[in-house]
Amino acid sequence: MRDIYQKIRASEFLTSAEVLQLKVSLVMFFLLLFGVLTLPVTFIEEFTLTVAIVVPLTFLFLYMITFLFLVYGKARLAMHFSIYTFIALTVYYMGGWGHFYSYFLIFVTLTIIIFYQDITTYIIYGGGLTAFAIIFMQANPDAVLAQYVNGEALSILIRQAVLLAFFIVFLLYFFLSDSYLETVNNEIVRNHATISRTRGLILQRNEDLTYRKEIAPLYEDDSFENAVKRIAGIAVERRQGEHPERSKETEVNIEELVEYYFFLHHQNLESIKEKQSAPELALRYARAFEPYLLNRAEDMNELIYKVLSRCVPASPLIYRRYATHFNSMFKTRSYRIIALAILYRFLANEATKRDRWGKVDHILEHTEIKKLFKSPQIRTILDFEDVTFFLNHEHLFRAYLS
Amino acid sequence: MSEAFLWNHQTRMDAIEREARMQGTRVLRGRLLVVAVLLTVFTFMVSVTFLLSGVPLEAWVANTGLLLLLVLVNFLFYFRPHYFGDLKLATYITTLGLYLLAIGMVSVFENPGMFAVLFLVYAVISIYQELRTSVLNGATLFVVGTVLLFYFPEVFGGAAGWSPDTLYLFAFLVIFVFLLTAAFLILLKRRRRVFFTSAAVKEEQFNTFELFLSMLPPGRIDKEAAKKYYEDVERFAKAFSSEVDVPDVFSDKLQWLRRLDLKDTEAAKGTSTLSHDEVPELHQLLLKRIRKMYYVALKASQQETIRPKSRRFDLQDETSLPALASDEEVSLVTFAVFVTALSFPKPVHKGLTVEQILNILTSDPFLNPLPEEMLELLKQNKQRIQSIIDDELRGEGST
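YS: structure for the whole thing
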């Protein structure tokens, strides 16, 4: 339990799969508690021997399946089986046991389903259970809470209404929660894509400038290669200090490995990987180094430019710092028009795209800006109103701001 | 650490935290509206139920009046958030008010089925999805439920009290409160992290734009460039005003922009006074001091073909940093390449010192791709590594 508590406290750092596993573990704990508390009643009540044996066995069977799925890392399946177990118990108690709490057991089962925080699961199982309970109460008014109420129609109606309202309110809760997270998700994905593209442009610009200034790129620079060798040597030294059992051979390998790393920058990796005759070791390292080559817009460059982007001065803007949609940035129409004019002027005068040779030298033409403004993707920045304004006065934009 | 680095780092962290908090407030404000609408529907339903059940008029007035008051509180906080400062106050008032109402309903009807109204109240308060409110919600349900079960058995028509049935119901209550509170804690903690990540990604996006802008040829985004921008926009605005035959409302604002951005003290002379509300909008447009509009334009230029995948959100997938290779030998090489590449000058950047690299990596745990032992290696050998880099840059290195 202490471990579970610690995990709940640090749940924001767990993956979705780990959170699900944690939830199933908790539910299983309560399921066991619940089973131990309620199942002995089947022997006290006036059930047939078959029922008295079958119910606990079914419970044990479902519980074991849930447990096994959890142990074997199939948390989603375990989740479904824990819900089945609760639903089975609820249906059994509702049908065979006219006691006070069978009505409340429906809420507990719905709670278990809600606990998993999965809208589809909630709609299917929660919806099914709610519908069943409402119909059941209608058909058997005496079965639930029988001995405490006089069975009048309004009383049953209230119970049904409360149950239905409970289901609907949590359904609303899920829709609100899901739709907001979906919006934030899309925003993060979109911003990531923008960062990745801009980083691609930075990398390309770096290569263009390297070429124009007639200096060697890092992976062709001997002093860079030497520095890498010497720093890798320090790392090997340290490792040997910590693990003296490792042989001197490793150091030689590191030097060779650094050379092989730089050698790969001038090779077609695909052809090396496809070559049947290539030694297995060479293939292994070619695959391992692939994302870390300096002439590729992959992991190594992503890391380097991520760090470098922290070295630029931070924007001093505080108010609406991250707002990029005109609706969030401006309330006054005239400021909006000024912003639109600045936006157009930048796009029409600065190279923001690759040209046909791949260099970051392409400045958008008026027709391209028009196409961009008419695309649905620009809705993250401009409103219909801004686009209509632009289309109505595009000749002015073209004449004064290009 | 240098003062400039500390200032930049602190500015960024403050901005990210502020944005994450604001996202939470925005969500809560939306939820106030949802709860207000929901309570309006409930007011109608409760009124009808009370009328049909023939409960005394004073009970009807009290319950309906309380519900209407709660509706009003939620609407008021939604439409006038700045009057109250903290929106959570509305959620606390609604929580306590609704439980009071539920107690009233349970005692009026004296029907065990009515106990479920407490669960319904719990569900309504859950809509807020706010951490402290969720804790208050769980605690109030537990206290109210327990007190009703054990000390007021008459409201259950004699079904409650110290009977086995009550104990079972109490067990249900414990499961209900514990599981849902745990579920909300997990959800809200994860959501807070999502907000933080979302803000951090926005900051990273702006930093990347700034890096791109720093690579533009000289004279593209400096003071002179900003002046040229304002001049062109002014000519455009004048042409627009004369074309649609309206007074030129832009000149004043552009003069103010020049004054604030370029310190052109002559610029705003003779213009109308700037209202307090306009200043934040004006700041969005400052091209030399703030550069925000350049960022917006860069973002716009990259948007055309971006299509977000519609799928379930997993924070780790979205924001995880590429790790250095897991293979031991390869990781040694990639570590050396990573540090050296950051230190060596490039056309787009003059390169960092090992000290600066360490400052950046240790100031933000989400930015550090190095395993703990590699970071330790860098810390312990920073002077040695720096001297290797200096040697090689001077062309005095030896293998």
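YS: worth flagging: The mean pLDDT of chain A is 83.
IM: good catch. Also Residues 14-184 of chain A form one domain.
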